[in-house]
Amino acid sequence: MKRLLALFIIIAICFAFITGCNKESDGADDALSVSDAGGDAVEASPSVDALLPSAASDDGSETGEQGGADDDADKKTPDLVPSPEGSTEDTAPDSQEPEASETAETSAAPETMEPSDAADSAPPEPSASETIVEESPSSSPAPPEASQPPDSPEPSATSATPDGPVVLTIFGGGVSAESEWSLKDLQSMRDGYREYTYSTTNNWPRYGHTVAHGVSLPYLLQQAGINANAAGLKLTATDGYYALFTLDQVFGARYAYSSHSASGSSGAVAVEPVIAWEWGEGSVRPENIRSFFGQSGPCDVNTSSFVQNVCKIEVLTNSPGSWSSPEASIASGSVSPETELNFIHDSMDVVKIYYTLDGSEPSYNSAVYNPSTSYFQPELTVPIILQESVTVKAFAAAYGKDRSAVVVFEFVVES
């Protein structure tokens, strides 16, 4: 009996030992299983989200495809490309989409004026620049309030550096030294600030009005140090187009007519030429700087003096000379009734010929022989029919030279 009890105890002890070994083995297996699972997690393929670029990559700040802020700072800013009309537009790279504000600004840009009438070809209808004075501004965005020159120190040619990007350079033998001016410099010239409504005539001819705000050109030249050697001006645009002016055309009497049409003009008011940064028809809005001149008379084609995107003013020292006098198609003397008289000039499409038939001295208010040009409305240039004895006096005038000497023709109509 004792032997059976001892055997039972031995069997129980063995069973307990074997059971404990099995539990340890199971724990080791579980630990190994956990280790294997961790290895699988480390070696698992990345998720789909990990392969997608983050939202910040749209502006290139994290992905490196377009570069971050430092790379953007090294990128070249698109150059300003001058248009054939003398205006400039910001040209963005093809890969960039313009911002909404940039698109709105571009769409609001005004049409640019053409170069001088002498360089125009013969279109069947007037060009944009020839009709600009009569276009309705209703399709343009509402212009802002006219700005006034800021309260800042009055600049002068002795200023060390321009206050901002240079928009205008004045140079030449007719000034004491070359000077450069920013838009802020020009707007700071409180004593030279002018607001005018210019009457306008072009070569079609069309008549209208343009409002301009800017600095007086005579005042600006004084600030630039114009000297006694000055004899004329050359205004050059960003596209290379230029216009010439005598000193009298800059400093002499010029006018704007409050009532101005093909049937006549009245209400003359003296005005100065200006370099304007705001202008428009009826009201103004900020624009590229442009020169504006008043008229010597109602038929003076002053639109050719409106140089858009003017960037250089050269003060010349050489005398501009005078235009040649017009010639008559027939010699002075006796003529038969209904004889036709025509004027001849080697620059007929540039100059205007002013004349009288009563022997009085012609002026800029006298009749004009050639109101249009050969490439617009040549039919408006008609001969003068001599029906009685007359003394004809005439002169030719245009920008860039002094008016010609007055020429006299005597015609006796035989009865």
**Which structural class should the secondary elements be placed in?**
alpha+beta
CATH topology of the largest domain: Sulfite Oxidase, Chain A, domain 2
Q: What is the number of strand segments?
A: 22
How many helical elements? 7
Which parts are unreliable, with pLDDT below 50 for 5 consecutive residues or more? 23-153
N-to-C SSE string, H for helix and E for strand: HHHEEHEEHEEHEEHEEEEEEEEEEEEEE
Helix content: 10-25%
Q: Brief description of this entry?
A:
The chain has 415 residues and is an alpha+beta fold. It has helices at residues 2-43, 48-51, 69-74, 100-107, 183-187, 217-223, 247-251; strands spanning 80-82, 88-90, 166-171, 179-182, 193-201, 207-216, 232-237, 242-246, 255-261, 264-270, 274-280, 285-292, 310-316, 327-328, 333-335, 339-341, 343-344, 352-356, 367-368, 384-386, 390-397, 407-413.
Your description of this structure?
With 415 residues, this protein is α+β, with helices and mostly antiparallel strands. It has 2 domains: 98-316, Sulfite Oxidase, Chain A, domain 2, CATH 3.90.420; 327-413, Sandwich (Immunoglobulin-like). 19% of the residues lie in helices and 28% in strands. It contains 7 helices and 22 strands. The chain has helices spanning 2-43, 48-51, 69-74, 100-107, 183-187, 217-223, 247-251; strands at residues 80-82, 88-90, 166-171, 179-182, 193-201, 207-216, 232-237, 242-246, 255-261, 264-270, 274-280, 285-292, 310-316, 327-328, 333-335, 339-341, 343-344, 352-356, 367-368, 384-386, 390-397, 407-413. The strands form 7 sheets. Strands 4-3-13-7-8 form a 5-stranded mixed beta sheet. A 5-stranded mixed beta sheet has the order 15-22-21-18-19, with no helix packed on it. The protein has a 4-stranded antiparallel beta sheet with strand order 5-6-11-12. A hairpin with a 5-residue loop joins strand 1 and strand 2. It is elongated, with a radius of gyration of 41 Å.
